[in-house]
Amino acid sequence: MRALVAGMVGEPADVLRLESRPVPTPEAGQALIRVKATPIHASDLHVLRGRYGFSPEFPTVGGHMECVGRIEAVGPDTAVGPDTEGLKVGERVVAVAVPAIPGPPVAGTWQEYLVTDTRRLLPVPDQLSDSSACQLAVNPLTALLLVTRELDVQPGEWLLQTAAGSTVGRLVIQLARHLGIRTINVVRRRAAVEEIKELGGDEVICTEDEDLVQRVAEIAGADGVSKATDCVAGEVGAQVSRALAPGGEVVVYGALSTHRQTEPAALTIPLQARSVIYEAKAVRGFWLNRWFGTASPADALSALSEVRSLVADDVLSIPQGQPFPLERFTEAVAFAEAPAHGTKPLFVFEDGRDDDNR
Ligand SMILES: NC(=O)c1ccc[n+]([C@@H]2O[C@H](COP(=O)([O-])OP(=O)(O)OC[C@H]3O[C@@H](n4cnc5c(N)ncnc54)[C@H](OP(=O)(O)O)[C@@H]3O)[C@@H](O)[C@H]2O)c1
């Protein structure tokens, strides 16, 4: 089988190689998954560059977050059937690869077959395309947790968010509309403004030609905004904090200001001590891997099931990914990091394609 392997930490395009490897054999409690589609997330590239919150042993198969595939086989004495939510051979499932889930870690997803603990598998309803299913466990779950758990935003409240055109940002807008939450959406390009409004964003601020702090004050008036999410960090993150009302809180979950995390100044969020002290403004982090490591297995399954229903019921619509065969990995990685790339690159496997789920 084909696998995309990084021999060492480094620039993905330099260290990734297409290899031929034997198909792995599942042990007790494990399933062999034939992968159909798997995304290239920013975090996958951070892992390869050695700049993420965990580091696998190298050489490593790339892709450490999620994929969709079919159960090809299960290990000896492995429960399949009602006890594992109806899992059976041939079933289409999402494999959640994040390492903090209990049980042995899943192998990288950028390969044709992988072996994983059956507790990491979630069955996928027929109406979900492979593109949506393989992006279910990271960005939609992050959007759900940020809005409903981390910040507990209530109907009628404002939520301020940066990089509103990102996949997470778009999902936050859709979820907010569903829950009656009003959003103020920050984008960096004027060309993105109309699209965000069409998606249902209540207000859009474009940092290309607008002052974030001033515009938030104009929009939210005397009551201000108390809840925000930020995945840009740097000066934009600092402006978000400045724009908040006293007692307000921003949850930081990304640092797109220095996407490759190479510029120390952009990796910093310069806060004003006076507003932290006298206005008790807070800045807190969120990392899905850490959440999986601290949530109970029941909570994790319940949040994942909730997100699966929101997507299956079309409350949340995950933008259709851009398919790439594994062989075109250099192009796919460049696409993932290109400005205004719009959609998420996905590795898709010809042999695993089903007409009904494309
Ligand atoms: N902490 C966690 O657990 C967690 C979980 C999921 C995602 N994330 C993070 O969330 C962020 C978004 O992920 P995603 O998959 O949704 O992203 P994505 O779909 O690839 O979209 C990236 C977006 O970021 C915008 N952007 C890039 N650089 C920017 C900058 N310097 N200033 C402002 N906007 C910028 C892009 O705008 P243009 O359209 O103008 O290019 C694009 O809208 C990433 O940082 C990711 O690592 C974190």
What best-fitting shape do the alpha-carbon axes yield?
globular
The number of strands is 16
Bound heterogens, unique: NADP nicotinamide-adenine-dinucleotide phosphate
Mean pLDDT value: 92
Rg over CA atoms, rounded to whole Å, is 21 Å
* C-alpha termini separation: 22 Å
CATH architectural designation of the largest domain: Alpha-Beta Complex
CATH superfamily of the largest domain: Medium-chain alcohol dehydrogenases, catalytic domain
Measured as a percent range, the helix fraction is 25-40%
β-sheet strand percentage: 15-25%
Which residue ranges are poorly predicted, with pLDDT under 50 across at least 5 consecutive positions?
352-356
**CATH topology (level 3) name of the largest domain:** Quinone Oxidoreductase, Chain A, domain 1
Total tally of structural domains: 2
User: What profile does the largest beta sheet have?
Assistant: 7 strands, mixed
Count of DSSP-assigned helices: 12
The CATH C-level name of the largest domain is Alpha Beta
Element string (H = helix, E = strand): EHEEHEEEEEHHEHEHEHEHEHEHHEHE
- What structural class do helix, strand and pairing data support? alpha/beta
